């Protein structure tokens, strides 16, 4: 498990491109037959990828979190972004097609991830937050999630928002997760942008063409920086940072938040005139 420490916005102003990438960018999430985990001190969230190909892969506790089982003090959100697969939670099997979501509550002991086919293996993207109580393990199919249309073609940000883990959907302790899909011809996400000083956020970009690139904007509104990202990469957004971007083609991203509250609309909007 790789550790990432919190940074002060005054420090981030002076980071080189490489230093920005070291602190905030998460690459190579899906390693065959392995669990890739990054622990950020921003609200102590863990981001990861699990990529079973020819055999099952277990998500277990470790010395880094001082826990015998991974969910001893945590809750977990799982999205499948590859071929169909299954997640076994304490012996109960949940089938996940592409873009399906599974929430696993605090206290679950055995977590086993498998692919249905090694020719088209599953890719499980996970986000985990600390939890003080237990909510039931719940699966949500992509096809059954209500969608909300945002933006417009004229402003190149026509997109479909789907909320999976939230106050009116899958219940959780503090984890909030959803998915946003950009329509063909649209490239901007989360613009006009915002910050929410009470919660951290992480974006995972996928369904980008192999040669396409995402220009993810971050930093304080008057001190913006950018990261150039490619398909299947994630970026950590501290509470003081904006989080938005544009790509060279359409794409989908999964957003996950944890912190003070679960109120989706708890955000401080940034006027376009404030951006520097």
Automatic annotation (TrEMBL):
Zinc listed as a keyword: yes
GO molecular function: 4-deoxy-L-threo-5-hexosulose-uronate ketol-isomerase activity
Domain of life assignment: Bacteria
Cofactor binding, note field: Binds 1 zinc ion per subunit.
Keyword Metal-binding in record: yes
InterPro entries for this protein: KduI (IPR007045), KduI/IolB_isomerase (IPR021120), KduI_N (IPR027449), RmlC-like_jellyroll (IPR014710), RmlC_Cupin_sf (IPR011051)
Keywords carried by this UniProt record: Isomerase, Metal-binding, Zinc
Cofactor(s) the protein requires to work: Zn(2+)
UniProt-listed Gene3D superfamilies: Jelly Rolls (2.60.120.10), pectin degrading enzyme 5-keto 4- deoxyuronate isomerase, domain 1 (2.60.120.520)
CDD domains named in the record: cupin_KduI_C (cd20491), cupin_KduI_N (cd20294)
Pathway in which the depicted protein is active: Glycan metabolism; pectin degradation; 2-dehydro-3-deoxy-D-gluconate from pectin: step 4/5
Catalytic activity: 5-dehydro-4-deoxy-D-glucuronate = 3-deoxy-D-glycero-2,5-hexodiulosonate
Entry-linked SUPFAM superfamilies: RmlC-like cupins
Entry binding sites for Zn(2+): 194, 196, 201, 243
Pfam families recorded: KduI (PF04962)
EC number per UniProt: 5.3.1.17
Family, per entry: Belongs to the KduI family.
Classification via HAMAP family: KduI
UniProt cross-references to NCBIfam families, sorted A to Z: PRK00924.1
Its job: Catalyzes the isomerization of 5-dehydro-4-deoxy-D-glucuronate to 3-deoxy-D-glycero-2,5-hexodiulosonate.
Protein name: 4-deoxy-L-threo-5-hexosulose-uronate ketol-isomerase
Species for this entry: Paenibacillus ottowii
């Amino acid at each position: 498990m790789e550790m990432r420490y919190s940074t002060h916005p005054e420090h981030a102003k002076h980071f080189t491109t490489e230093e920005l990438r070291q602190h905030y960018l998460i690459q190579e999430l899906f390693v065959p037959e392995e669990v890739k985990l990054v622990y950020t001190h921003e609200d102590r969230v863990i981001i990861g990828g699990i990529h079973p190909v020819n055999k099952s892969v277990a998500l277990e506790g470790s010395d880094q979190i001082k826990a015998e089982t991974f969910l001893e003090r945590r809750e977990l959100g799982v999205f499948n972004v590859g071929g169909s697969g299954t997640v076994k939670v304490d012996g109960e099997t949940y089938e996940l097609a592409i873009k399906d979501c599974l929430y696993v509550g605090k206290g679950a002991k055995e977590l086993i991830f498998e692919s249905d086919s090694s020719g088209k293996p599953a890719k499980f993207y996970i986000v985990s937050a600390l939890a003080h109580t237990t909510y039931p393990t719940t699966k949500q199919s992509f096809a059954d999630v209500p969608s909300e249309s945002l933006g417009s073609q004229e402003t190149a940000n026509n997109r479909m928002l789907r909320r999976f883990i939230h106050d009116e959907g899958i219940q959780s302790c503090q984890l909030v997760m959803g998915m946003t899909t950009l329509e063909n011809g649209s490239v901007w996400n989360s613009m006009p942008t915002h910050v929410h000083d009470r919660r951290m956020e992480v974006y995972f970009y996928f369904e980008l063409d192999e040669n396409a690139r995402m220009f993810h904007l971050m930093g304080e509104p008057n001190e913006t920086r950018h990261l150039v990202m490619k398909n299947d990469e994630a970026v950590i957004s501290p509470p003081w940072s904006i989080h938005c971007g544009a790509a060279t083609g359409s794409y989908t991203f999964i957003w996950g938040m944890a912190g003070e509250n679960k109120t989706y609309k708890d955000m401080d909007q940034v006027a376009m005139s404030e951006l520097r």
